[in-house]
From TrEMBL, chain A:
This is PTS sugar transporter subunit IIB. It comes from the Bacteria. Residues 1-25 form the signal peptide. It comes from Lichenifustis flavocetrariae. PROSITE patterns: PTS_EIIB_TYPE_2. GO terms for molecular function: protein-N(PI)-phosphohistidine-sugar phosphotransferase activity. InterPro entries: PTS_EIIB-like_sf, PTS_EIIB_2, PTS_EIIB_2/3. Keywords: Phosphotransferase system, Signal, Sugar transport, Transferase, Transport. Residues 6-96 form the PTS EIIB type-2 domain. The keyword Transferase applies.
UniProtKB/TrEMBL annotation, chain B:
Residues 6-153 form the PTS EIIA type-2 domain. CDD domains: PTS_IIA_fru. Keywords: Sugar transport, Transport. SUPFAM superfamilies: Phoshotransferase/anion transport protein. InterPro entries: PTrfase/Anion_transptr, PTS_EIIA_type-2_dom, PTS_SugarTrans_NitroReg. It comes from the Bacteria. This is PTS sugar transporter subunit IIA. PANTHER family: PHOSPHOTRANSFERASE SYSTEM MANNITOL_FRUCTOSE-SPECIFIC IIA DOMAIN CONTAINING PROTEIN (PTHR47738:SF3), PTS SYSTEM FRUCTOSE-LIKE EIIA COMPONENT-RELATED (PTHR47738). It comes from Lichenifustis flavocetrariae.
Length: 96, 156
């Protein structure tokens, strides 16, 4: 059964550094797990204006509350601590 | 993927330095990158300001790392500068700016384009996720020792 391709908004402070690392890691792993995703990178400050078009937010820096979409912390992609669990949570949301 | 050592100009490696605080560590590395012609004069203030509002400390366990950086507009050539600190200084955690963590390794990143730097970013992540390599880097007293530590990657 085909699952509708979902969009993940990956946010960090500058939209060039840590979000790039997170975006690559998510894309690679989800591809291995047979899931195609669209990934958009942005600055944390841009999240509120872009949130409407995404299904999930992964952020390495704090983002506002009450965005109406699930938010997952991206720090495990940098530290390695809890990375496997974070990828499983992302996969679960993508398959919903 | 090879290690971090070949991404670091020897002049951009500062070992066992003593700094008063995070801003001083950032200032030292910004100065090195500026002297090497990798960043503009505005880089230092821009990184310092960004660190104040959106800190870059990464809580890793035994040795914590900070990766201060800023917008590409302040950068001339993609680059990296590194300092190990004799005594840790406090950086805010990237995850929670209100949480201060003691940091002993500071890597100032100068980035221009998100896709051009993925290799450098992946090498940094791989390196900092290797506790033995980080411990060896913190202990390094000479450039050769530091380069040997930096050449180690994560085991996964």
């Amino acid at each position: 059964m085909a699952i509708k391709q979902k969009t993940i908004l990956v946010a960090c402070g500058t939209a060039v550094a840590t979000s790039t690392l997170v975006a690559y890691a998510i894309e690679e792993t989800m591809k291995e797990r047979g899931l195609r995703v669209t990934i958009r990178q942005c600055k944390a400050t841009e999240v509120p204006s872009l949130v409407a078009d995404c299904d999930l937010i992964v952020a390495t820096t704090p983002v506002p509350d009450n965005l109406g979409k699930p938010v997952i912390k991206g720090l495990p992609f940098l530290t390695g601590i809890g990375k496997a669990d974070t990828l499983d949570r992302i996969e679960k949301i993508l398959r919903e | 993927m090879t290690g971090l050592q070949d991404m670091l100009d020897p002049q951009a490696i500062c070992l066992q330095v003593e700094v008063a605080d995070a801003a001083a560590a950032i200032g030292l590395l910004a100065e090195r990158l500026h002297a090497l012609g990798r960043v503009k004069g505005s880089y230092r203030d821009a990184v310092t300001e960004r660190e104040r509002t959106m800190p870059t400390g990464l809580p890793l366990g035994a040795v914590n790392v900070a990766v201060p950086h800023t917008d590409p507009v302040h950068v001339i050539n993609p680059s990296l500068a590194l300092a190990t600190l004799r005594s840790p200084v406090l950086f805010g955690s990237m995850d929670d700016p209100d949480e201060m963590i003691p940091v002993q390794v500071v890597m100032a990143m100068a980035l221009t384009d998100k896709n051009a730097q993925i290799d450098m970013l992946q090498r940094i992540a791989s390196f900092i996720q290797n506790p033995a390599a980080l411990a060896a880097l913190v202990a390094a007293e000479t450039l050769l020792q530091a380069q040997a530590a930096l050449s180690q990657m994560a085991q996964d």
